[in-house]
TrEMBL record:
GO terms for biological process: pentose catabolic process; pentose-phosphate shunt. One of its GO terms (cellular component) is cytoplasm. It comes from Clostridium fungisolvens. This is Ribulose-phosphate 3-epimerase. Keywords: Carbohydrate metabolism, Cobalt, Isomerase, Manganese, Metal-binding, Zinc.
Length: 216
């Protein structure tokens, strides 16, 4: 089964609540929430108050992607916003095993994200304790960028590791996914698809989501 996690970074923020309800009703399983700190990535998005404000609008899984330096400083606050999955970047945390264990000790699902240039090999030993691996298929920081093709090879590598060490692992892919490449992404082993622009564009959420599913 393939799970859809629309990224609200591409939503119309003047009508954020309404658009979240629409992706919920259109059948998206997760809501992807991109938090950017202006240090780990060259952009600033939104933080705790926004996530808290939208939490009561849907029961769907809050899939919180932290593009934040030293995310360990903020795990408790993100848990308090109602996050269901917290994903931190391998490149942002020198003691990532400790932070992952901490997130899990709080009863929340934990994920690690890898920038395009970061090898899958670096997290091999963590696979058994992870709930999710997030392969970035663009350089993080902005929506609407072009999919980087070598990500497909990395998805396959994660899939192989999950077959060996963790059959429950969620394999999420984020960045530049649209109708033209979603099939290849899923065939390579992804089971959670993040889509920003290709879901929210043209205020056509329901139809866009349906078109993406149809290709699979
Ligand atoms: C990029 C974010 C993505 C982004 C995806 O740094 O992590 O979640 O919103 O947007 P699209 O689907 O437009 O590439
Ligand atoms: Zn993201």
């Amino acid at each position: 089964m393939v799970v859809f996690s629309p990224s609200i970074l591409a939503a119309d923020f003047t009508r954020l609540g309404e658009q979240i309800k629409r992706v919920d009703e259109a059948g998206a399983e997760f809501i992807h929430i991109d938090v950017m700190d202006g240090a780990f990535v060259p952009n600033i998005s939104f933080g705790f108050p926004i996530i808290k404000a939208i939490r009561p609008l849907t029961k769907k899984v809050f899939d919180v992607h932290l593009m934040v330096e030293e995310p360990a400083r903020y795990i408790d606050e993100f848990i308090a916003t109602g996050a269901d999955i917290i994903t931190i970047h391998y490149e942002a945390d020198r003691h990532i095993d400790r932070t992952i264990s901490y997130i899990k000790s709080k009863g929340i699902k934990a994920g690690i994200s890898l920038n395009p240039a970061t090898p899958v090999e670096f997290i091999k030993h963590l696979i058994p304790k992870l709930d999710m691996v997030l392969i970035m298929s663009v350089n993080p920081g902005f929506g609407g960028q072009k999919f980087i093709d070598y990500s497909l090879e990395k998805i396959k590598e994660v899939k192989e590791l999950s077959e060996k060490y963790n059959s429950e692992l969620l394999i999420e892919v984020d960045g530049g996914i649209d109708k033209s490449n979603i099939k290849k992404v899923v065939e390579s082993g992804a089971n959670v698809i993040v889509a920003g622009s290709s879901v929210f564009s043209g205020d056509n959420i329901e139809n866009n989501l349906m078109e993406l599913r149809k290709v699979l």
